[in-house]
């Protein structure tokens, strides 16, 4: 047991709560803005109540933190039971997280009971014990808290071996992933999902990485941008565009057609009449989201066939022919065009507009492109930051 672990065990409940409220946001950025309800303002005393510290996340889920300085066997389980009971009473149990922040090490039997209790109630359980708290406080970026709450002065300097470990385990893998991201973004492939596994590992397990706050904030922003980029489904967007494209071309060729009306009832009472649109509109919806055909229409722009001296995209023709073909229709009559038509209908509709232009004019695609530009800009900044850090380490510890 080192000095930090030893002094930590002697903190009162109020002192431990104050430490928890300061340290937890540094261990996980999602644990910021905690509400310290168990503390008596201006003192190190505590008031009875459950939980000691809590927070409602942006997703509406609750985090309950029970801080336990009492090393008695069963005390942690008792506090956890109170938290779960309170969550149930307030009807906020779903997707909750219960954190046990304890200044001692707990027996395996009690830990297992806590884990089982949380599993039975479908909530998460996180145990933070004396050893993990002490290790976090001994890290350079948390030594201000160690000095404030435990009275242990900051370390004078970093051991060269520690610096090299940080370099090899943090900064080298980080800059490698950032450079891979740079290459991926350069491809400008809106279909591809961007992966930043090591960056996510840094953010999710901050207590394992000695990373300055300015780096962490930038990495969190990059994570958010990547999530924003990955969310829109290009195939769904493309399918939506193809359906609108087809309907416009169809109406230009045959006019606006209403096949009839069907009555809509609710509890045997007629509510309204719903218009029946051409069967072709339903058929195009069946094929417009086909990923292979969409890839042919967008990625393989050389996938063309010639008709009467003009080039047409094969994938679009396949979709439109499917929607128009009599073999696929059950009820619709033979269509008569508005005027003279020298092309098969699928060719006529395909020539009505430029699908590539429609795709890149779509608001969702423009937003995805702008997000990619933001990722490229921030990624460049991060590469420069990490590169400067590596140069600083080299000049201070490696240059001979």
Number of DSSP strand runs: 8
- Assembly state of the chains shown: single chain
Order of helices and strands: HHEEHEHEHHHHHHEEHHEEHHHH
The residue ranges in which pLDDT falls below 50 over 5 or more consecutive positions are none
Anisotropy-based shape? elongated
Q: Largest sheet, described in full?
A: 4 strands, mixed
Query: Structural class per helix/strand content?
Result: alpha/beta
The pLDDT mean sits at: 87
What percent of the residues sit in helical stretches (DSSP H or I)?
40-55%
Strand order within the widest sheet?
1-2-3-4
**N- to C-terminal separation?**
37 Å
Radius of gyration: 31 Å
Number of helices: 16
Q: How big a fraction of the residues is strand?
A: 5-15%
What would your notes on this structure say?
- This protein is α/β, with parallel strands linked by helices and 400 residues long.
- The protein is 55% helix and 11% strand.
- The protein is built from 16 helices and 8 strands.
- Strands 1-2-3-4 form a 4-stranded mixed beta sheet. The chain has a two-stranded antiparallel ribbon with strand order 5-6.
Task: Set down the secondary structure blueprint.
Layout (H helix, E strand, L loop, with lengths): L2 H7 L3 H15 L25 E4 L5 E7 L6 H15 L7 E6 L5 H13 L3 E5 L1 H9 L4 H8 L9 H27 L10 H8 L8 H18 L3 H21 L5 E7 L2 E8 L2 H9 L3 H8 L5 E4 L2 E4 H11 L20 H6 L4 H7 L1 H36 L2
Task: Summarize, please.
The chain has about 400 residues and is of the alpha/beta class. Helix content is about 55%, strand content about 10%. The chain is built from 16 helices and eight strands.
